[in-house]
Every structure is written in C-alpha cells, then in structure tokens.
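User: Can you recover a sequence for this backbone? Please restate the input before giving your answer.

Assistant: Of course. Working from this structure:
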C-alpha cells in the first residue's frame, strides 16, 4: 500500500502530508518541515491517517502482519525447543552405551488395554518381595533410545497367540529413573496403535526368541521383558508393509527412521524376523 500524498495527523507535530513512502519508512511534510518515521510502526503509535477508509485498510494490513509474526514467533519457539531436546538427546546418548536389548515389551491386563492408548504410559509393576517390596520394578536398560512394545493375550489363549497391540518410543529425555508411580513415559510423537485386524497379523512370537530356551514360547509371569533392538525394527518394518492408509504409512516410516537413528541401526539392512512362529 503506497501512502504518498495521504494526509495524516501526528499527535505532536499536527497535520502533515506523506511525501515519500519506502519499505521501512515514510517521510512527512509538516508545512515544509520534513520528518522521517519508521513504517508501519509509526501508525500504531502516534500517526493517524485522515482518510478513514484507507486507515481501515491499513489496520487490516497490520492485523495480517501481526498474525504472520505470531506464526513466525511460534515457529521460532518450537525450533528452539526442538534444538534443546536434540541437545538433551545427544547428551543422553553420549553418556549412555546402547545395550543390544534396550527395548521393553509389556504384558497388558484388560484395564491397561483400555487405558494405555489414552494415557500412553505403562507401569513396570512392583517388586513382590524383599526389602524393596511394593516399589516399582526398575528398568535400568531403558533410555531415550528405547521403545515399549504393548502385547496381550486372553487368559484362555495359548502363549503363542499373544498379539502386538501397539508400541511407542520412550520420552526423549528419559534416563531410566522412574517416578513413584513406576510409569514409563512415552514420546509425544512416536506412538502407534494397531487396529484389531492389524494386531491379528502381528503375533508377538514371530519376533521373540528366548535365547535360553529357543524352542519354547513361554511367558508365565512378570510384567515386562527386555527386547532386542533389531526385533523392534523388524516389527516396525512389517507394520509399514501392513498399513494401507498413506498417512499411517508415513507415521510408521518416521517412527522406524527415528528408532534406527536412536539405536544406530542400518535401516536398509534390517534382517527378516526369525521368531519361534517363523
């Protein structure tokens, strides 16, 4: 909007006429007394356009500019927060040697199956005996590179019928120290819930092998088990192939990329799953 020749009122110098309008300033003639002002800031503080229609149009320009500035400021804040999180992640990885089985698989009871996909956190359970009885089970191997695999089977089902219901990355600043409630917190972005149809095609024992008993599908007790990093990558890879929705495929691909980055896994060379059922 070019404002040359528009009449204005300054709250100190009085009536004037705009004789020059550049990108970031205007020049006003106050009865042969020329003065420069920052544009558009001057109109928000001490200069008023005499033509109300043009003044209204200028207000709309200001409103649009403020909205754009808000978006840019929000983006700057988000970028700064992302940089801080990335720095925290780097520090954590720098001081944390990645264990080959630093993932965790949970056995969900019926209540947890209803709540976990709302709260996106799960308890490690409590110690059953000894001086620490009642305290949360510790998960020393877990850190920012860990994922939680969520599984379940009905009480009348065989262990080989255990299904994968979902998975999530652990919160990016998690260091293995649990709060009093013993919950493992999730990342705000990397979370996947499988549909019933998808879960039916994702048996847990397609991936898991007990190295002490490689021919036995057994999980008699315990809230959780540690899980191999490569097995988790295999789950994500198979899940991508299973998905039909483009947006869900993209989300799963981003999850896999992040997981492999956090666990120093070559995403192009993930071996085929070789669990007991395979």
């Amino acid at each position: 909007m070019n404002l040359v020749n528009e009449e204005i009122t300054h709250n100190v110098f009085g009536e004037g006429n705009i004789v020059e309008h550049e990108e970031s300033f205007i020049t006003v003639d106050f009865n042969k007394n020329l003065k420069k002002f920052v544009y558009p800031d001057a109109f928000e503080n001490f200069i008023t356009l005499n033509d109300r229609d043009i003044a209204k149009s200028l207000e709309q320009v200001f409103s649009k500019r403020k909205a754009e500035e808000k978006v840019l400021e929000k983006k700057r804040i988000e970028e700064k927060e992302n940089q801080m999180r990335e720095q925290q992640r780097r520090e954590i990885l720098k001081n944390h040697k990645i264990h080959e089985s630093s993932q965790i698989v949970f056995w969900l009871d019926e209540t947890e199956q209803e709540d976990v996909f709302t709260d996106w956190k799960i308890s490690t359970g409590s110690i059953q005996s000894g001086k620490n009885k009642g305290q949360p089970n510790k998960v020393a191997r877990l850190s920012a590179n860990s994922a939680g695999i969520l599984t379940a089977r009905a009480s009348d089902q065989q262990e080989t019928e255990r299904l994968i219901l979902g998975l999530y990355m652990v919160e990016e600043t998690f260091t293995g120290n649990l709060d009093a409630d013993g919950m493992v917190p999730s990342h705000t972005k990397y979370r996947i819930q499988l549909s019933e149809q998808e879960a039916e095609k994702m048996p847990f024992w397609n991936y898991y092998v007990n190295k002490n008993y490689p021919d036995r599908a057994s999980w008699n007790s315990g809230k959780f088990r540690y899980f191999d990093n490569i097995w988790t990558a295999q789950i994500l890879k198979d899940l991508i192939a299973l998905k039909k929705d483009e947006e869900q495929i993209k989300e799963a691909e981003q999850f896999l990329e992040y997981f492999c980055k956090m666990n120093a896994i070559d995403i192009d060379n993930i071996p085929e799953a070789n669990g007991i059922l395979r």
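That completes the design. The chain is about 35% helix and 25% strand.
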